[in-house]
Amino acid sequence: MTDTRARLLAKAQQKCLPYLLDLPRFAPYLNDLTFILVGSVAAGLCHEDSDIDIAILCESDVYDSISADTAWREGKPTEIEIDGTQLHYYAETFERVESALKSLDDVSLYAYSSAVPLHDPKNQHARRFARLSEDADGIRKERLEGKLDMFLRRSRAVEQALHDPDIILLARMALELITRAAKIAALLDRIAFDPRKRLFGMAVSGITGRLIEPSLREMLVAVGDLASSEERMSSAVNRLRRTTAQVVECLSGEARRQDLRVGLDSPDYRQSKE
Q1: Does residue 171 register a pLDDT over 50?
Q2: What is the mean pLDDT of the chain?
Q3: Rounded to whole angstroms, how far apart are CA atoms 36 and 120?
Q4: Other CB atoms closer than 10 Å to residue 11's CB: what's the count?
Q5: pLDDT tens-digit readout, 30-43
Q6: Strand 116-119 to strand 78-82: parallel, antiparallel, or no bridges (unpaired)?
Q7: Do 140 and 265 belong to one domain?
Q8: Residues 122 and 32 occupy one common structural domain
Q9: Which pLDDT belongs to residue 164?
Q10: Is 142 found in the same domain as 130?
Q11: 140 CB contacts (<8 Å, ≥6 apart)?
């Protein structure tokens, strides 16, 4: 554990949690609330200026009682500064979290896979989310198989679009492919990632990520060149074709080395709606 994470974790436990426990909004329901540290501090990806993020989990009826006058359902946490550090907190129901985790939602898996319980009087966190720790490899395999399947489908769609390119459509598809490739690389390298921020930097910090980084960067440059002159656009199309093939080959090869087959050799119907 880094000194920065240790300091912020101690502040979450000693400053932020007592503040939340004393709030009139929560005080009548403390025996039914589970407070957990989530985000970059919990995941060990924090820096000196990182915020502290705390989720409060509960049943639906309790949520209805504590969530009045908040924007939590819109994804907007409540913010306050405590002892020089920004605290973000929000409540969510166990049911919605469990549903998101079951669907392998990237944001939820990032938030809750590395969560640190701060106040859990009924041991709800350990009982409800045991699979996150007990079957981490199985969950990772499911995520990779689904993402590989969809990545290969999208790469074939990009190849088709390159034959008669529409600039806006092709740019959007290429950026989507880059994002999918970054997530796969991070998972292959067992690197936790937040899909909402710093995804590229996290993805290229591992061995597989570093292998595909030059191709991903060239793809990004090519996307910018699509709106240039006809000659530069033609060059950009050729570069997208070449770099897409390079990324597909690298990720597929590493996936096979890790004995992943679903998504590569056969479709993954579980993720057909991704």
Answers
A1: yes
A2: 92
A3: 8
A4: 18
A5: 999 999 999 999 99
A6: unpaired
A7: yes
A8: yes
A9: 83
A10: no
A11: 187, 190
Helices (H), 53-190: 60-66, 94-102, 106-113, 124-128, 130-134, 136-161, 167-188
180 domain-assigned:
yes
Q: What is the pTM assigned to this prediction? A: 0.87
Judgement on whether residues 233 and 121 belong to the same structural domain of the protein: no
Are both 105 and 170 inside the same structural domain?
no
Within a domain: 119 = yes
Distance CA 237, CA 233 (A): 6
3-state helix, strand, coil in the chain (%, to 5): 60, 10, 25
Are 104 and 141 within 8 A, CB to CB?
A: no
Which residue segment(s) compose the domain that 122 sits in?
Answer: 3-134
- Count CB atoms within 10 A of the CB of residue 134: 10
Q: DSSP per residue over 170-209, as a string?
A: HHHHHHHHHHHHHHHHHHHTT----TTSSHHHHHTTSHHH
Does residue 273 carry a pLDDT above 50?
no
Residues in CB range of 155: below 8 A, 6 or more apart: 177, 244, 247, 248
Q: Is residue 274 part of a domain?
A: no
**3-54: pLDDT as tens digits:** 999 999 999 999 999 999 999 999 999 999 999 999 999 998 899 899 999 9
Number of domains forming the structure of the chain: 2
pLDDT per residue as tens digits for the range 238-268: 999 999 999 999 999 999 999 987 656 655 5
Same domain, yes or no: 159 and 86: no
> What's the one-letter identity of residue 70?
T
The two tokens of residue 146 are 């689904």
